[in-house]
Amino acid sequence: MTSIGSLVFCTDCGNLLPASKGNEKNILKCECCGAENQDSKFKSIVTKSKPSDFPSLLRQKLSTVQTVERHKVQTEALIAETCEKCGRTEVRFSSVQLRSADEGATNFYTCDCGHKWSANN
């Protein structure tokens, strides 16, 4: 009888045997060929593996280091909002979560004229 992890196989035909009782006096009878196999499940078998044993494209993508230069990240967008100071109809804005998550974000607006203001959503 051969065992792999918690599975026990018949030594004669290789068929999967009924569930082990964990007792070496227990006899497991093969339903396929009728051979009687002594239970060896009572022996503890530990198997270990490393992530590299099972390569995958997802794991390869996750292990790739990505570098982001902070000054190249665009954090503002254009929106159709009127500047109170100069009347320009398109200004830049960014949203920041300043309060708790169940409250709205705060929008910060910046006009090309230099005027800045904020609004809570």
Automatic annotation (TrEMBL):
Zn(2+) 1 binds at C10, C13, C30, C33. InterPro entries: DNA-dir_RNA_pol-M_15_CS, Rpa12/Rpb9/Rpc10/TFS, Zn_ribbon_RPA12_C, Zn_ribbon_RPB9, Znf_TFIIS. Gene3D superfamilies: 2.20.25.10. Its main location: nucleus. GO terms for cellular component: nuclear DNA-directed RNA polymerase complex; RNA polymerase I complex. Zn(2+) 2 binds at C83, C86, C111, C113. GO terms for biological process: termination of RNA polymerase I transcription. It is found in: Nucleus, Nucleolus. It comes from the Eukaryota. Residues 79-118 form the TFIIS-type domain. A zinc finger (C4-type) spans 10-33. Keywords: DNA-directed RNA polymerase, Metal-binding, Nucleus, Transcription, Zinc, Zinc-finger. DNA-dependent RNA polymerase catalyzes the transcription of DNA into RNA using the four ribonucleoside triphosphates as substrates. Belongs to the archaeal rpoM/eukaryotic RPA12/RPB9/RPC11 RNA polymerase family. This is DNA-directed RNA polymerase subunit. It comes from Neoarthrinium moseri.
